[in-house]
Amino acid sequence: MTPPIRVLHVGKYYPPAPGGMERVVQLLCESERRLEGIDSRVLVANTAASTRHDTVGGVPVTRLRALGAIGSVGVCPGFPWALRRATRDVTVIHEPNPVALVADFLARQKGPLVVWFHSEVLRPQWKYRLLYRPFLKRVLARASRIVVSSPPLAEHAAELQPFRDKCVVVPFGIDRRPLEATPDIAARVEALKAETPGPRLLFIGRLVPYKGVDVLLRAMAEVHATAWIVGSGPLRERLEADAARLGVASRVQFLGGLPDAEVVARLHACDVFVLPSVTHAETFGMVQLEAMACGVPVVSTSVRSGVPWVNQHSQTGLVVDPGNADELARALRTLIADPALRRRLGEAGRARVASDFTLEAMASQTAALYRDLTQGPTQTAVARLTAAIRGESAPWPVAAAPAFQEDVIRSAVEHGVESLVASASRRLETWPSAVRERLAARATSACAIEALRERELRHVLSVLAGDCVTPLVAKGAALAYSIYPEPHLRARVDTDLIVSHDEMPQVVAALERLGYARAAQNVGELVSHQVGLGRTDAHGVWHAIDVHWKVANPQVFADLLPVIELRDEAVPLPALGPDARMPSPVHALLLAVVHLAAHHARQPRLIWLYDLHLLASRLTAPEFERVAQLARSRGVAALTARALRQARAAFDTRIEEAVLAGLDAVDPRDEAPARFVDEEPGKLGTLVSDLRRLPSWQARGQLLREHVFPPADYMLRAYHTTHRTWLPALYVHRVVTGGWRWLRQA
After folding, report:
1. Who is most buried in 105, 163, 360, 496, counting CB within 10 A?
2. Which of these, 215, 211, 251, 218, lies nearest to 232 by C-alpha position?
3. pLDDT, tens digit (0-9, with 9 covering 90-100), for 219-229
């Protein structure tokens, strides 16, 4: 089992210490720990002169001894040492946080670093440039990723401009449960409406200059409504005096700080929520989300931050110019006069929160980010492909390097899932359009090519039926036309047909009459149990057919499922016409297992695992028991258990534990293909396995001769020559170079 990713969050303080950033860190850590594979911990300053280790909401928290505080920052001499000693895979510094910036500089840590850039620092320029900026710039330069809560923050924050390629947008999420209208809240809402019958406006926040409450008071002179002002701060007395001077004091209620339940009741009771911020110090406006979650339309301002990105104009509310009291008044009057508009915007806001601003969405995106940093680009590309096929969200890093796009495309092609992923377009909304378009183009091409392959295969099967041969369509081609919604979704490069050994000459001759030519392939009685043929049609499409008389080339698997047994239990394949048949579901699953093992797939292609997933998902309980019985009796129980677990790990395949337990009851060491379970044997290992499997020294000698001295026709095709006089030299070259390659792969 993969160990969890250990994530160390470095903040200023942690709840119950108050603060907006502190609350975000708490919600994030608690949500991450609910995810499988993420172990989040916290390192912060204490508010006391002692170090304390505790657990809050399931999150381990270390609060370091503070000698005091400068402003809102604790002075902790032990922070660099604690940061250096902490065990983790990823460090997340929540910024603004001068203590963490200095500690990182002194600790000289390496390894993946994420900076969560909550907001810009608003300080006197000389202090900022001298004391803060150098440490921030160093940490941003060292960071692997920089997280921002909205695209505008990345666009407008001056310190982020040199590092835009590292920025990733992860919107803040909120816990909607405390905002629900419980019976007690609903009763309080009705009481509030009775107390204040007119249109009700609500503001929640600190009474400080950037909040723009003075602008709201000026607008109230033109708006006939009651405004509830919830919050306290240094400007309260001045704002109360402004309300009296403007003649709106009777309609503006300064309520100060209120209990949480009362705040929720007023959110549900108000008609419009107002956030009249006048500067980008209002970075996001979390309180907007709370209002939207309650179905309340929002009026906010177009400050250069995430505020207008959260509340989208004419979709979830209205957005006005900051500091413009007349425009704010017009927006408020518009909403007050139109209840239907308020309902429409409020419901859209509620839906936007539920879709984009949940704790689950926030944590899943940060977890994906941590995996990006710890697992490497290829693995994370495969992880995104797998998630898309499973039907899950597969968010794309907003600022992922262009090379990652190529990783995803290349991985999709290598794993044979480009069409499958393209079909999941609704789950790829965050993927770059260039990636979606390339996948869609490949899927369109695959669909057209598969249509030509289907016509060709139908014709081949019809011709063979006329010769009284009914081959079994196997592996990818059979699955494409039986268990996949559309054949082109199952990527393949050839068609596998299974016939008896006696029918081989007749089938090969029929295919050669149709224009097929043999591939350059070493064919013998023991070295290979198939013949490959191919042709190019009038449209330039290559058609390859592998004709098998045994189910696999390695001797340990060759006789696992005899052709006569496969034919006895074969089922119709009507999608390819009346002459088409394929192995039964039980045999098809075992063939998929053997295919996985014979290709030494310790890291199997996703399309092979998806084959297993679809096959296993369709089996009945008796069929599953038959699979287990055959696997045990044929000596492939361990391989079957491994393959099923790989499919389940990738695609959550439904597999009864009793089936796996029955397969696990067999000791893999007692089965012939044991080395295919424990290791990738390579060519030399497979040869050793084949030699051990053969019953006599005569057969072993024949296998070695077929490997070392294949037929002359094969040698001439492989070396692209027609001069038979060169054959002795070609055989010598094959022995020397081929033997060296095999030894290197041992």
Report:
1. 496
2. 211
3. 999 999 999 99
